[in-house]
Amino acid sequence: MLNYLNNKFNSISLKSKIELYLLPLLLLYLIYFLFSYTAKDSVDLKAKIKTDEYSNLEFKDSFLDLFSNIQDYALKNQIVISNISNNKKIVLIKAKANSESIKEFLKKIENLNNFTTIKYILLNKQDLENYSFEIQIDLNKFYVKKLVEQKEDIKAEDEILNKREILKYKINGIISDYAFINDAWLQKNEKIDDLVLTKIERNFVVLENENSKIILELNNENDIKNFN
């Protein structure tokens, strides 16, 4: 039987032999094409469903909270806002700041939520360092963003914690290498709680450990008794 098939194959024309070689390849290509097309359609359909789902999302948060967030950031970062308004989810901000603060402000705006996108910014140089600027923010569309935790928020929390720590300690006098803190005289390098009195100057002292550094200042010059 094999000899018969072999003889039969040898007797056919070269064209027929080529066609017989190509036929399996064509079949494999056809299977691959159909599979790829079906898979692509499936991915496109999923993407379309996901896009349609996002397109129905609307910004429904409080504009009062949004404006408060923006103004708090501006206040902490030397950005002077002269006007902020909203018209059909288009927010207009007019302000003044230096170039570095403006750059960080733009990052903050884009990272506020999944809706904020900056449509345009206008800059007008005021002096060597500062610019007056105008930003238009659109909140009409949802965008898939990887929102990054803001460094300034972390810094603000640290400052609040540090202020709370400072409130625990009160200084009422300084004499040479001694400071009167929380109704007790401490010598330089002595400890109060987990803090060490590392520095004594004419009108302030420094308490610190591995994680914190607190500067206590004398508010009244009459409390200063430095005999150095």
Brief summary:
The chain folds into three domains: 54 residues; 76 residues, Ribosomal protein S6/Translation elongation factor EF1B (Alpha-Beta Plaits), CATH 3.30.70.60; 58 residues, no CATH class. Helices cover 42% and strands 30% of the residues. It contains five helices and twelve strands.
Tell me what you see in this structure:
The chain has helices at 2-11, 14-55, 63-76, 99-110, 151-167; strands at 80-87, 90-98, 117-125, 130-138, 171-175, 178-181, 184-187, 191-192, 195-200, 204-208, 213-217, 224-225. With 228 residues, it is α+β, with helices and mostly antiparallel strands. The chain has 3 domains: 2-55; 63-138, Ribosomal protein S6/Translation elongation factor EF1B (Alpha-Beta Plaits, 2-Layer Sandwich); 168-225, no CATH class. A hairpin with a 3-residue loop joins strand 9 (195-200) and strand 10 (204-208).
Task: List its traits.
single chain; 228 residues; alpha+beta; Alpha-Beta Plaits; 3 domains; four-stranded antiparallel sheet; four-stranded mixed sheet; 5 helices; 42% helix; elongated; disordered C terminus
